[in-house]
Specification:
The chain is mostly helical and 330 residues long. It has 13 helices and no strands.
Amino acid sequence: MGDVDRPGGERATKAGWRRRALRWGATTAIVGVVGWLFATALIDNWDALRDRDLRPDGWWALAIAAFAAAVPVTGLSWGRIVRVLEPDARVSAREAIAVQCLSWVLKYIPGQVGSVANKVLWAKKKGISRTLIVITFIYENVFLQLASIVPAVIILFVSLGPRVLGENATTLIAPLLVLIPVAAVLYAPLFHRIVALPAKKILKRDIPREYFLSSGQALRSAIAFLGPRIVNGVGFVAIAVSVSGISPAEWLPFAAAYALAGAVGILAFLVPSGLGVREAVIVAVLSQYIPLAEAIVISLIARLLSTVGDALVALIYVIVRRTIPKEIRP
């Protein structure tokens, strides 16, 4: 029997290796191209940066703190969704923060596999339906996209005016097209049908309607997810002030640019944490306000400090986890 099964197993293994090779090949290509373009632009514009003082300062510390704080804020919003859909679960704010922080650290696994797996494993330990947690994970990502794209596009369209119809048209319009199917999540009956059809074939059972937010609940949750995007925006503006000394009139468009870049980075699911993609969107938008070289430096510093912020998120997870009873710790 082992000899009979071996060819199929070998084919599956080879297919898995091909998928991994394709994924990492795409990641390497994207990061490589963006890195080459950034390096070329920096070399061509080096004179504009030579006299700038780019040493770490208090603004950088504020940025790191804001980037890290956005994750617990997201966890609180996600925890509210779980409590609405499963009131008997008694999910505390500390649990939601701990689970969210660990899932955030695991985002570096492409496709968000690590993030959702962490929440599913926690749900099993907690006695919550894993299907329900997967649905809350979908809600979380959809609401973050809505909170990132819609306000950002409106703010940048008003700020840039006629210029938005030029080089930035694709950057702003393409994410809006993604919202067409995403908006279906806000209407519970339609979202239930979309999820129920494949789930019935795979799980061989129906998904209860109680696992879905009503339209009013979904709208309130979507608004709540504006919180983490605002906190992230504060961190990014702090970096821009440190590097380029932007005026208060530019704070809102810069925060919007970072939110939009984060949303596009999530859509680039083959690339861990949107590496390279997020920076490209930031530069495309910020270069409409400041010199190209400064826009590139801001995007690179934002990536660096957000990574430092991720280390702080891991520390928050360790600290908060210790306050949770052992039997339900994430």
